[in-house]
Amino acid sequence: MIESLLVANRGEIARRIIRTARRLGVRAIAVHSEADADLPFVTEADEAVCVGPANPALSYRNTEAIMAAAKDTGAQAIHPGYGFLSENADFARTVSDAGLVWVGPGADAITAMGDKINARNLMAAAGVPVAAGTTDPAGTVEAALDAATTIGYPVMVKAAAGGGGMGMGVAVDEAALRGEYEKVRGFAERMFGDGSVLIERFFPRVRHVEVQILGLADGRVVALGERECSVQRRNQKLVEESPSPAVTPQLRERFLAAAVRAGEAVGYRNAGTVECLLDPASGEFFFLEMNTRLQVEHPVTELVYGVDLVEEQLRVAAGLPPTFDPDALTARGHAIELRINAEDPKRFLPGPGAVKTWIEPVGEGVRVDAGYVAGNTVTPFYDSLLAKLIVYGADRAQALERARAAVAGFEVAGPKCNLPFFAELLDNAEFVSGDYDTGIVARMR
């Protein structure tokens, strides 16, 4: 097993990785910005290094500062968490070239999946279903219009280099496409340094279902079930659950087989997620993208399968076999994750501030992965995620019951908080039925 691990991230995911590292006897090293010096992940690490000011470009995305911290602390490995440098192929290569262990997929796999168009083409070649769309970037608005005519309106306009729901828009006709094309291209150039645009079929009613994969040290790729991620605002996930209420045993077989093929197509190692769109009307599903990292919502898979995915990541990176039998994976029960954000529960606009009250719920089947405690300050420099509330039950009905109680028992005062939204959602007839799609939040508002 790896002996020392530098966690190149912050907040709840850094704290969560550190927790597993310490349980395994691995020396945990945190890096932090000046703004995060008092957060729990810093104090809970065995060692901590300040790598720069609040601006993430000068701290959490500062490759030179992070590599210097790894050298100064004698770190053997680096875990990037999610966001920041987690899907940066150049950083993965830098870590490996320095003789350190990169806890994630190889740089080639990150590169292959980092461009949505290239990823779609690779998946299609591997026999993974993809929606109708462009096989090359739409370099001009005229090319986008031609593609849309072939595909048929409405279409989704996407930044090819984007991820996490950023850089996309819907066009219902030619006039809308002209505007969305320029908007998405401009956003992509600013955010990703790449203005390439993908035009793809848009499904007015669709569910977002993803599969957790793990590329093992021996070369095999295994799938650890699916997660439903259809409760979203502005294409950003708010709730995830496993298993998906929309997936039958027969459909699950097809989903998992396609996800394994996707991983095998790029020689995938370590944890990753194959995201798909499911058309509930036809039962068809289509490849959306592959996230070459640990997902925010990984805890629901952990609870249903009884594994620690961070431990499995470390074992793969160290060349060790998994703790479980890959040929006897069994899902039990139902898990739901709610993303507790520092944002208002109506318009979902961020509202940072000092945390005056922080009381976490307790009870059977309740888990909280939090980045803050009372006395901390939520700053405007980073993502608004405060904590993840995860509940587990023998079935979905019990999980929902425990989720309602946990939301009622979670007290946060100071920053804005979206807990009231979850109280509303958990009593929403459409959500409770399990027959919902990505439009549910808009219908609630």
Automatic annotation (TrEMBL):
Residues 120-318 form the ATP-grasp domain. The keyword ATP-binding applies. Coiled coil: none annotated. The keyword Nucleotide-binding applies. Residues 1-445 form the Biotin carboxylation domain. Its EC number is 6.3.4.14. PROSITE patterns: ATP_GRASP, BC, CPSASE_1, CPSASE_2. It comes from the Bacteria. Keywords: ATP-binding, Biotin, Ligase, Nucleotide-binding. It holds the Pfam family Biotin_carb_N. InterPro entries: ATP-grasp, BC-like_N, Biotin_carboxylase_complex, Biotin_carboxylation_dom, Biotin_COase_C, CPAse_ATP-bd, PreATP-grasp_dom_sf, Rudment_hybrid_motif. This is biotin carboxylase. It comes from Polymorphospora lycopeni.
